[in-house]
Design goal:
Distance between the termini: 16 Å
Largest sheet: 4 strands, mixed
Strand order of the largest sheet: 1-4-3-2
Strand content: 25-35%
Shape: globular
Length: 121
């Protein structure tokens, strides 16, 4: 089990990330520890599937460039997640099912353009 993954965002990009992770996906924002809160960014609880919850940490990067290749992949109900994201205006790009037989998955871009993958249970 991975405890958390971190993605980056530009200075002031926290609200764009909240719109994606909290509003569109419904993930709970969790408070950052006081000694880290001054650095900016935000943290979210990632609902566990058959196991403990994980966390996604969004950190501030002064020289931010969206990750267009590297990405975290989250296990989810991909159909419901795709609908929620599309309804909120985010792109959903389904992967070719022949690339990894038996695994339904899609990619999207978070609020600041980072590549994110969702994989079926």
């Amino acid at each position: 089990m991975i405890h958390h993954v971190q993605v980056a965002c530009p200075v002031g990009g926290e609200n764009l990330e909240r719109a994606f992770y909290s509003e569109a996906l419904g993930w709970e924002e969790i408070p950052k520890p006081p000694l880290l809160a001054g650095r900016g960014g935000c943290w979210f609880r990632v609902p566990g599937v058959g196991g403990p919850d994980g966390e996604l940490h969004v950190g501030i990067d002064d020289d931010f460039i969206p990750a267009v290749k590297a990405h975290p992949a989250f296990v989810a109900d991909v159909d419901a997640t795709a609908v929620a994201l599309q309804s909120a205006g985010y792109p959903v790009e389904w992967a070719d099912p022949e690339q990894i037989p038996g695994r339904r998955r899609f990619h999207t871009r978070d609020g600041v353009g980072n590549r994110i993958e969702f994989v079926g249970r």
